[in-house]
Write a structure and sequence with these properties.
With about 160 residues, this protein is an alpha/beta fold. Helix content is about 40%, strand content about 20%. Strand 4, helix 4 and strand 5 form a beta-alpha-beta unit.
């Protein structure tokens, strides 16, 4: 079974993430969202809430699972039996960081490859920070997140549309 990890903070998951997951789900037998628990990163949503949003937003994809980790992704990939990591690219500026991470993950676990995938053009300009910023100021983000995520954002940020 070919398993790919999709690591990230996903605070919150948006349709760009889902687009990458849908593409990966057609290539791999199983896609596992690896929700990062990083104490150095201030998140709007708890790990449990992020996992719940991912599960709800991807329930239409049969070969997706969600787990959380607070350790190295290379170690988590080994534990989960993953042969690859999938990472989304939006712009050329993302490449340098992703390349460095891929090299380090390969150093830590030579049995895992990193695949960089470009999201659909209609989502190329969004990220989770932008979703929170625009939504928090009352902007319409409904075309970028699932209805469930939009409702979760409204609970945390009442001015979210």
């Amino acid at each position: 079974m070919k398993i790919v990890l999709y690591p990230g903070t996903f605070d919150p998951i948006h349709k760009g993430h889902i687009d990458i997951c849908e593409k990966a789900s057609k290539i791999f037998d199983k896609v596992i969202f690896a929700v990062a628990e990083n104490p150095n990163k201030k998140t709007l949503f708890s790990t449990i809430e992020r996992v719940e949003m991912i599960k709800n937003s991807t329930n239409h994809i049969s070969n997706v699972e969600t787990a959380s980790t607070n350790g190295l992704i290379a170690d988590f990939a080994r534990k989960m039996g993953a042969c690859a990591l999938i990472r989304g690219l939006r712009h050329v500026s993302d490449f340098e960081f992703e390349f460095q991470m891929a090299m380090m993950n390969n150093h830590l676990n030579q049995n895992v490859s990193t695949l960089l995938m470009v999201t659909a053009e209609r989502y190329i300009h969004i990220n989770s920070t932008m979703i929170k910023n625009v939504g928090g100021l009352g902007g319409d983000i409904s075309s970028y997140v699932s209805e469930f995520v939009l409702n979760q954002l409204k609970k945390k940020m009442p001015s979210s549309n």
